[in-house]
Amino acid sequence: MPRWGLVVEQNLGFGRQGRMWSVGVMDHVEGTREDALDALRVRAERFEPIHPANPKRRALYREADGFLLVVEGVWQPFHCRFTVAEQLYDSAAPEPAAERPDSPAREEEPGVREPAPRKALSPEPEPGPPPAWDAHVPEVPSWLGRDDLP
Q1: How many CB atoms lie within 10 A of CB 112?
Q2: Model confidence at 62, in pLDDT bands (50, 70, 90)?
Q3: Which end of the chain is least crowded, N or C, by CB within 10 Å?
Q4: Is 71 exposed, middle or buried (0-12, 13-18, 19+ CB in 10 A)?
């Protein structure tokens, strides 16, 4: 049975420079995709985002793989994305008991051979998010504090 991750993406931090987009896994669900979407909807309806501190209005929208929560604050709206994603690999997951080297060996019938177990491939490193549009703009301009300019 597939294992589904209930993922939330939201803004964290304060101010223009300190705010960043963050992702987290709220929970896991074993079952069908529809079961995971039902569990995600309950979580999305009850979710209290970091921003805004004093929400004026909340609106929840359904998307193809999850939900979009738009919360209007005093000064501006904020949003959170809720997504259902099937878990394919987890490096921290315990090995199944049948594959552990210290588990007792099964008695095999003569002439019956099982195929060799597939080794889990390490996932490719993700390239990461693209830099912000103002990522390479210095906070202090280079001409500030120069004595040779008029």
Answers
A1: 6
A2: very high
A3: C
A4: buried
